[in-house]
């Protein structure tokens, strides 16, 4: 998908050629005498259209309008939430056969966040998974012009929005793949492809023998029931000086979760291919970082394996020794995500990070608590928690902070090891976070439980790519905070190299970028 940003008012929008013109109509529409403004005013006066969020009026071959199809779309107060809600109503017209070029124009100036919402909704509406469904008919829409009167002021926001869309698409692609197309080995190859395509990214893959040498007994215990060998993926994005402390992102990479010996019910078990949503979000975030090139160092750690009920699988009641030296009694083999994450969190300490954020589809309890709207946020550091919550709000990829009182850890006590891997049904999302907290030492740490937000079911079943938007915004804000005072107002992408594929910002008011799903080099 090609996105282009232009300076357009309604008069110039009427001259925009293409198959579809969508005009965003807000409550407080500027009064001008051009053809489009006159048309909107007449439609409102006669009761055929109103600016209420999500209201539509479709027209064809309108005189004085160059585009074949015209769609008036109400966006209410023009807030990011209203724009997002309104765009959700036009996925049909956008993907209709014969629509190859479209323009979306706002008569009012767009806020950065509203532009971000616009780009994300358009990218989401036109995303199509085809890796294992070649018969799926490709979306005809190939290019979208985004028009606003204040386009010159939106250049940086446009770059971030496009990079986010690139990262989200990459994460969705890998999370949507069935488990036999997204094994630990293939996930590692995707990480290696990222590093091969972008010079600021380096990749190191730890194989089973390497993980054994590291003493990751907890991680290895989860993987031992599968014929697919584990992979421990280590990514490095270098955007700042070598002595600059990195942020470490740790993504749960269970490429399929049967529950092990504590096997899951058969219903909806196919959705356990999404149990590597945390890993996918780390890959997607690195894809976005490669586009923007912010001045920050980031480490990505992905413990990837399957959780299978083989004869060699770990059993309820088994005790394993983690990399930290703490012993763990595995009371439930379906609480495996925390077992792979705890060793990765211990490994993260060697980088002396400024912060560690783990991302995991960890608990059904978090789905019950927060549903599909917000990811669960747990942290031992108030400043980090606030920064993540603010980043989520800015990216419209929301989270909600949950408690971590010491009393919640009481249920993890056991007579047979230092800690049990489950603490009973009450407060299940919190006790899971308390388990992870044992392995972070004094590091500033946050845990994002994305079990309710990483994918959706029903007719639109598929991965969402969350929380790539939240993570990217947090990293950009961290880079800005770390910049010298005289440079702290903006964090601009570095000059592109010949091997990079950056957003193209040609001149004020006109920018273009190409957004695809996975890179061709990453297709398996």
TrEMBL record:
| Record EC number | 3.4.11.1, 3.4.11.10
Q: Which CDD domains match?
A: Peptidase_M17
Q: What is its main location?
A: cytoplasm
Q: Could you tell me what reaction this enzyme catalyses?
A: Release of an N-terminal amino acid, Xaa-|-Yaa-, in which Xaa is preferably Leu, but may be other amino acids including Pro although not Arg or Lys, and Yaa may be Pro. Amino acid amides and methyl esters are also readily hydrolyzed, but rates on arylamides are exceedingly low; Release of an N-terminal amino acid, preferentially leucine, but not glutamic or aspartic acids
Query: Which portions of the chain have biased composition (kind: Basic and acidic residues)?
Result: 497-509
Provide the cofactor list for this protein: Mn(2+)
| Signal peptide (from-to) | none
**Which Gene Ontology terms cover its molecular function?**
aminopeptidase activity
**Pfam families registered for this protein in UniProt:** Peptidase_M17, Peptidase_M17_N
**Residue intervals of the Cytosol aminopeptidase domain:** 332-339
Q: Protease: is it a keyword of this entry?
A: yes
Q: Which domain of life is it from?
A: Bacteria
User: Keyword annotations for this protein?
Assistant: Aminopeptidase, Cytoplasm, Hydrolase, Manganese, Metal-binding, Protease
Q: Per UniProt, where does Mn(2+) 1 bind?
A: 257, 334, 336
| Annotated binding of Mn(2+) 2, by residue | 252, 257, 275, 336
How many cofactor units bind, and how?
A: Binds 2 manganese ions per subunit.
Which residue positions are annotated as catalytic? Answer: 264, 338
Q: In its keyword annotation, does this UniProt entry include Metal-binding?
A: yes
Q: Where is this region: Disordered?
A: 485-510
> What is the stated purpose of this protein?
Presumably involved in the processing and regular turnover of intracellular proteins. Catalyzes the removal of unsubstituted N-terminal amino acids from various peptides.
* Similarity comment text for this entry: Belongs to the peptidase M17 family.
The family database entries (NCBIfam families) matched by this protein are listed as: PRK00913.1-4
Q: What is this protein called?
A: Probable cytosol aminopeptidase
The organism is Comamonas sediminis
């Amino acid at each position: 998908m090609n996105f282009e940003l232009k300076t357009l008012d309604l008069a110039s929008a009427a001259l925009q050629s293409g198959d579809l013109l969508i005009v965003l109509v807000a409550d407080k529409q500027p009064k001008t005498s051009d053809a489009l403004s006159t048309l909107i005013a007449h439609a409102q006066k006669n009761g055929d259209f109103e600016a209420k969020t999500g209201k539509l009026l479709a027209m064809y071959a309108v005189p004085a309008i160059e585009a074949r199809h015209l769609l008036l779309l109400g966006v209410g107060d023009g807030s990011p939430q209203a724009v997002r809600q309104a765009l959700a109503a036009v996925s049909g017209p956008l993907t209709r056969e014969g629509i190859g070029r479209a323009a979306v124009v706002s008569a009012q100036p767009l806020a950065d966040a509203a532009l971000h919402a616009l780009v994300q909704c358009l990218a989401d509406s036109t995303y199509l998974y085809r890796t294992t469904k070649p018969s799926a008919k490709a979306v005809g829409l190939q290019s979208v012009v985004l028009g606003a009167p204040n386009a010159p002021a939106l250049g940086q926001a446009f770059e971030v929005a496009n990079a986010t869309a690139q990262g989200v698409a990459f994460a969705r692609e890998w999370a949507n793949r069935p488990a036999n197309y997204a094994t630990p080995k293939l996930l590692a190859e995707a990480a290696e492809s990222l590093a091969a395509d972008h010079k600021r990214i380096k990749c190191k893959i730890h194989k089973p023998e390497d993980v054994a040498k590291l003493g990751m007994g907890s991680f290895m215990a989860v993987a031992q029931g599968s014929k697919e060998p584990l992979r421990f993926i280590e990514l490095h994005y270098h955007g700042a000086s070598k002595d600059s402390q990195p942020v470490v992102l740790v993504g749960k990479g269970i490429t399929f979760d049967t529950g092990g010996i504590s096997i899951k019910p058969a219903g909806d078990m196919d959705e356990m291919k999404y149990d590597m949503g945390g890993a996918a979000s780390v890959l997607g975030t690195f894809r976005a970082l490669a586009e923007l090139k912010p001045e920050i160092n980031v480490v990505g750690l992905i413990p990837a394996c399957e959780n299978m009920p083989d004869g060699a699988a770990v059993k309820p009641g088994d005790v394993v020794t983690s990399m930290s030296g703490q012993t763990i009694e595995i009371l439930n083999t379906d609480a495996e995500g925390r077992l792979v994450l705890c060793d990765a969190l211990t490994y993260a300490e060697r980088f002396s990070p400024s912060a560690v954020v783990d991302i995991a589809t960890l608990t059904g309890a978090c789905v019950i608590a927060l549903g599909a709207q917000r990811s669960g946020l747990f942290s031992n550091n108030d400043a980090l928690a606030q920064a993540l919550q603010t980043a989520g709000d800015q990216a419209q990829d929301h989270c909600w902070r949950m408690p971590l009182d010491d009393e919640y850890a009481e249920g993890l006590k056991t007579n047979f090891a230092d800690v049990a891997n489950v603490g009973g049904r009450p407060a299940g999302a919190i006790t899971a976070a308390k388990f992870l907290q044992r392995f972070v030492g004094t590091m500033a740490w946050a845990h994002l439980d994305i079990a309710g937000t990483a994918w959706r079911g029903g007719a639109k079943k598929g991965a969402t790519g969350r929380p790539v938007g939240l993570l990217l915004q947090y990293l950009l804000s961290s880079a800005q905070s770390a910049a010298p005072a005289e440079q702290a107002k903006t964090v601009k992408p570095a000059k592109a190299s010949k091997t990079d594929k950056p957003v193209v910002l040609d001149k004020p008011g006109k920018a273009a970028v190409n957004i695809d799903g996975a890179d061709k080099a990453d297709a398996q």
